[in-house]
């Protein structure tokens, strides 16, 4: 797939990083909106479609571009860990085949709470974080 086609195909993804007082819907300009993982998930589902699922290398490249404009060191995506069943999954239901972890994941420590996935703004790789941190996030739209 060529870059032009890839870019136009994922233009519908929206980066939600706007000031809470100036959000106007599908505006693409990055800003300062920060939420916990659960708040970000709720916000995306109520106002767009979902938190972005990075299930292909193409989507990963797009996320790498948009995270250049973030105000936090990490950005929430729709990656979730289940402590009971001990595996990672995309909230959209996509399989976790493509992976871009910053380091090999060992057993997740769930003693301090649930874990969710974020993309590092610097390395663009995925990391596991406690869900209660407030970060920028990426929603998908129709």
Automatic annotation (TrEMBL):
Secretion signal span: 1-26
Keywords, alphabetical: Signal
Classification via Gene3D superfamilies: Mannose-Binding Protein A, subunit A (3.10.100.10)
Sequence ranges assigned to domain C-type lectin in this UniProt record: 32-140
Protein name: C-type lectin domain-containing protein
């Amino acid at each position: 797939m060529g870059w032009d086609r890839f870019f136009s195909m994922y233009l519908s993804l929206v980066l939600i990083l706007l000031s809470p007082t100036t959000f106007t819907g599908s505006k693409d300009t990055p800003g300062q909106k920060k939420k916990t993982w659960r708040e970000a998930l709720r916000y995306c589902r109520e106002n767009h479609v979902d938190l972005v699922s990075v299930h292909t290398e193409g989507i990963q490249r797009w996320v790498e571009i948009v995270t250049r404009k973030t105000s936090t060191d990490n950005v929430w995506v729709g990656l979730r860990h289940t402590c009971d069943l001990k595996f990672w999954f995309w909230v959209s239901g996509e399989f976790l085949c493509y992976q871009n972890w910053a380091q090999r994941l060992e057993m997740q420590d769930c003693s301090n709470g649930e874990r969710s996935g974020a993309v590092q703004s610097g390395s663009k790789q995925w990391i596991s974080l406690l869900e209660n941190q407030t970060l920028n996030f990426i929603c998908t739209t129709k």
